[in-house]
Design a protein that fits this description.
The chain has 168 residues and is an alpha+beta fold. It has helices at residues 3-27, 61-81, 87-110, 131-148; strands at 33-37, 41-48, 113-121, 124-125. It has a 4-stranded antiparallel beta sheet with strand order 1-2-3-4.
């Protein structure tokens, strides 16, 4: 996948994230919960002032923004330096790039990130998240799959089944 296509995909993620947040803010208040799949999934508006998934609640805005900015810079550098790039790696970098930019826009513009997707099963409760968070997680998962499946280049330590013939 070429660089232009990677940035287009990241842009689509950014648009989907910002559009979904805009619609939720227009239709929900923080005290209202909309059951989508009762007992498993609902929509609830949360203003997340912390890091991803509410980690480090009320953390310093600029510290988190600087960390996200660094991640965006690293991903952008990687995309620019490694061309052409395999499709899976391209998608694995585009998804978190678009998601990180989406959350950074919220953090700078609103001083918090709009979260609204809430998954839960019985007493087990996941932190409320958004489209950007989902894309970041899927992208990181794809990166892990990509790099774990990639040969390391190290010689095998398993002896071959057929002995090698010596030449004299």
């Amino acid at each position: 996948m070429n660089r232009f296509a990677i940035y287009i995909l990241a842009g689509l993620v950014l648009l989907a994230d910002q559009f979904s947040k805009q619609q939720i803010v227009r239709t929900l208040t923080p005290d209202r919960v909309v059951d989508v799949v009762p007992g498993y999934f609902d929509l609830t508006l949360v203003h997340n002032t912390g890091g991803a998934f509410g980690i480090l609640p009320n953390s310093t805005l600029w510290l988190v923004a600087a960390a996200v900015g660094a991640v965006i810079a690293i991903i952008t550098f990687t995309i620019r330096a490694a061309q052409p790039m395999p499709l899976m790696l391209s998608i694995a970098l585009a998804l978190p790039l678009g998601g990180a930019i989406g959350n950074l826009i919220d953090r700078v513009r609103l001083k918090y990130v709009v979260d609204f997707l809430h998954a839960h099963v019985g007493d087990h409760d996941w932190p409320v998240f958004n489209v950007a968070d989902s894309c970041i997680c899927v992208g990181v998962g794809l990166l892990a799959i990509y790099f774990w499946g990639k040969p390391t280049g190290k010689p095998s330590t398993v002896p071959s089944e057929t002995p090698e013939k010596e030449t004299v």
